[in-house]
Structures are given as C-alpha cells and as structure tokens.
Automatic annotation (TrEMBL):
<dbReference type="InterPro" id="IPR037914">
    <property type="entry name" value="SpoVT-AbrB_sf"/>
</dbReference>
<feature type="domain" description="SpoVT-AbrB">
    <location>
        <begin position="6"/>
        <end position="49"/>
    </location>
</feature>
<dbReference type="Pfam" id="PF04014">
    <property type="entry name" value="MazE_antitoxin"/>
</dbReference>
<dbReference type="InterPro" id="IPR007159">
    <property type="entry name" value="SpoVT-AbrB_dom"/>
</dbReference>
<protein>
    <submittedName>
        <fullName>ChpB-ChpS toxin-antitoxin system antitoxin</fullName>
    </submittedName>
</protein>
C-alpha cells in the first residue's frame, strides 16, 4: 500500500485509510510508540501502560536508600510540621 506524507502545521503526517486502522485495531487520537530499526523500518506499537505492581516488581528491595534520604530522616522540624 502506498501512503502519502502530508504537511500538517509544523509536522508531517502519514494518512492511513480507515480499513488499515480497523485491521490494526487503532483509532484517531490513540497514543503510540514509534521506533526505527537499523534497516530503516518503522515500528509502530501501542504505548505500554504499566501497573503499580509491575513498576514495584522492578525495584531492588535490597538496594540502600539514597544518601539524601538519611539527611531527610535526621532533619528537625523548622515550622509547624506535624510529626
């Protein structure tokens, strides 16, 4: 299929026919990730949304806390903070 690139404001857009969008399960306004391969191919995929559990599972629970956290924990109240 041939796709024509068009100028749209300061951007260039590729117009996809409704049948292609339907086949790919895409819709107007959907956020996508676009990457290019070393061969010059374009890879378009839905933007990945992570759950909190997925993000927490990537954390190293044995890692030492950042140095600035020790300073935060040792600091004294300077205003009307409730401790």
């Amino acid at each position: 299929m041939e796709v024509v690139l068009r100028k749209y404001g300061n951007s260039t857009v590729a117009v996809m026919p409704p049948a292609v969008l339907r086949d790919l399960g895409l819709k107007s306004g959907q956020t996508m990730s676009l990457e290019t391969t070393s061969e010059g191919n374009i890879v378009l995929s839905p933007k990945r949304r992570f759950t909190l559990a997925e993000l927490v599972s990537q954390c190293d629970t044995k890692a030492a806390p950042p140095a600035d956290m020790a300073l935060w924990e040792a600091s004294k109240p300077v205003g009307n903070e409730v401790w």
